[in-house]
């Protein structure tokens, strides 16, 4: 699905990442950990094309991202659901519309999707808040809304950056449950997280691989986690 | 950009319009700029058309007619007129030569001397109206021949005093068209600025839309449609007011000369109706260019 081949990245100063090679195979479940500032968010951005690698190649769905024009990039974003660390919304539209935004911009028939949308909103526990505006949500509610928005188009790949950063344990288990279920349906999942508890909980449900960024490199963490 | 997307700009889809938050001041700015510019464009257009009519009329009269004035003692007048007419009819390039009747001459003088003038009591020269054909005649040669055979004849081909007027009217028309172009350019600049302001104010909206997979066309069209529609509404209002203003100007009359001829005549009233359409096109192009350049800066 997504393939990083010897990728290096720097924001202009020294190299932040170098020689990163990883393949997210279809249906795989990965965690990405590492200390704050190690470059987890950066690596995810490389995966969905928000950043271009300074060296190496990133391939998505068998094609090199460097060759993508702006429309192809838009199409790519529809196949990769992303939960951003700083969940951004359209602040003038209610939560339900924000969650439905990927459907709207890709020209889906909203009437046909209405039932799906309602179910998904119920799943992330936002039915009561569906008409609220994003600035009126709590941090955890924002993250749940962001996750719902990331999966509404039923993308092949889901990249989640600290999706459980602001929610309590019970809610993070629910969100994990949702991601695990999507993975069982064949979606590829990559979650960046510090939360070792979450990673352990996931490992008991799916075969998750843990990648760790240390010293600018990406390593496969052992079974010690 | 295929026909489907062009159509979708105007028919629009309610969803796409909602993704961009309603923006108060750029909307009013665009409406006002388009209205004011359309209003000015109506007058510039009226000026150009009136100057054009004037220039055409003067130019065609200039090219077509001349006057031969014969001053002679009363007893020789008829004979000299006869000779002059004969010469004129023989001259190649002269289509018609006609001596004005005493009534016509009296009519020409009426503005100065009042009606009821008896020409017989005055030493008035005889006027001969000379009409050229397409090829035109050799004025210098004709003058030489007349000087020899009709000593009292003076050929006035009007060129001397009419040419500067035609030139003035022509440059007035040119200035009118240049004004229209400048008005269009100014409107494009103002709408461009407003569009850039709106795009900058909505940077986060655009970023979010990009992140969820919106194509540039989709994002741009949300802005383009708004600005085009606002400009169209503004220009319709401005044009309406401008046409109302032109309508209130005094009608064309001979006494008023040029000033009262400022306005539209007959089918000319259809011309200003193009202004809102052009205004909308200008807004469309300006917003489209602004959105394009802005979006290119984003990933
Ligand atoms: N746009 C940017 N320009 C310059 N430096 C940046 C930029 N974005 C991030 N950085 C730097 O790159 C490093 C990695 O940032 P990144 O956001 O990838 O870290 P992270 O692993 O996601 O951290 P956290 O766990 O805190 O979210 C940080 O030191 C950060 O300051
Ligand atoms: Mg991060």
Automatic annotation (TrEMBL), chain A:
Alphabetic keyword roster: ATP-binding, Nucleotide-binding
Checking PROSITE patterns in the record gives:
ABC_TRANSPORTER_1, ABC_TRANSPORTER_2
Cross-referenced Pfam families: ABC_tran
Oxidoreductase is among the record's keywords: no
Which Gene3D superfamilies does the annotation name? P-loop containing nucleotide triphosphate hydrolases
Instruction: List the molecular function annotations (GO) for this entry.
Output: ATP binding
Report domain ABC transporter positions: 2-221
Q: Which InterPro entries match?
A: AAA+_ATPase (IPR003593), ABC_transporter-like_ATP-bd (IPR003439), ABC_transporter-like_CS (IPR017871), ABC_transpr_LolD-like (IPR015854), P-loop_NTPase (IPR027417)
Q: What is this protein called?
A: ATP-binding cassette domain-containing protein
Task: State the organism of origin.
Answer: Pseudodonghicola flavimaris
TrEMBL record, chain B:
Q: Which InterPro entries match?
A: ABC3_permease_C, FtsX
Instruction: Provide the alphabetized UniProt keywords.
Output: Cell cycle, Cell division, Cell membrane, Membrane, Transmembrane, Transmembrane helix
Q: Does the keyword Cell division apply?
A: yes
This protein's record includes keyword Transmembrane helix? yes
One biological process term from GO is:
cell division
Places the protein is found: Cell membrane
How does the protein's chain sit in the membrane according to the entry? Answer: Multi-pass membrane protein
Name the chain's protein.
Cell division protein FtsX
Q: Which organism is it from?
A: Pseudodonghicola flavimaris
